[in-house]
Amino acid sequence: MRIIVFLVIFLFSACLQNNSVVYKNINLDEANILLASEDVIILDVRTKNEISKGYIPSATFIDFYSKEFDSKVSLINKDKAVYVYCKSGSRSLKAVEKMSKMGFVDVYNLDGGFMSWKEANLPYNIDSLFNYKSLDNILTQNYIDSILIVNTNVLICISTQWCMPCRKMEPIINKLEIELNDKLFVLRLDADDNPFLTKQYNVLAIPTYVLYKNNLEVWRKNGIIAYSELVRNIN
Fold it and tell me: DSSP assignment, residue 181?
């Protein structure tokens, strides 16, 4: 009987530990140093209207109030450190608590949010990042299949507008498309416009790149990839 009671207590404690919230609050000085690293993800959880008034360079954008917040966050690479901010630090605190429960173990909340960042005269950008959704971005599986059948080499690039690593990869993909235009078809797919993609192509993080040769998948990888690695796998 004592053994059973002990096991029940042990399993209950383990469940509590698995559901525990693990994150760290960081101040502006810490953030400015840490965010200089190339191997981190900066997550802005504000609305599009707030972002239009300025944002921290290299940020990825997922609106905390969006009904798709959880599904979009689940596509972020959990192996990377994620630094989250909002306008003042309140929303981002809720976001990091939620992300911690989702399995993110290296997640940080920026105290004071973008307001403090801006008041401290730290660098930020102001520009138009979001385009209106176009019907040209919405594709069917039949259309994708037809491209795979007709072309010998097809690189499928699955990304979103709000993903910063996706935007960093764009010049690399453009260069690849120009220099290998005689042997490679580059198919860009927006995961937001085409929600079936994440399940169809088993997308675990974005950006995801899948290489097909003769209509068969031969290679895939997500995240930021060197140009030389892409060329090596295509050739």
Answer: T
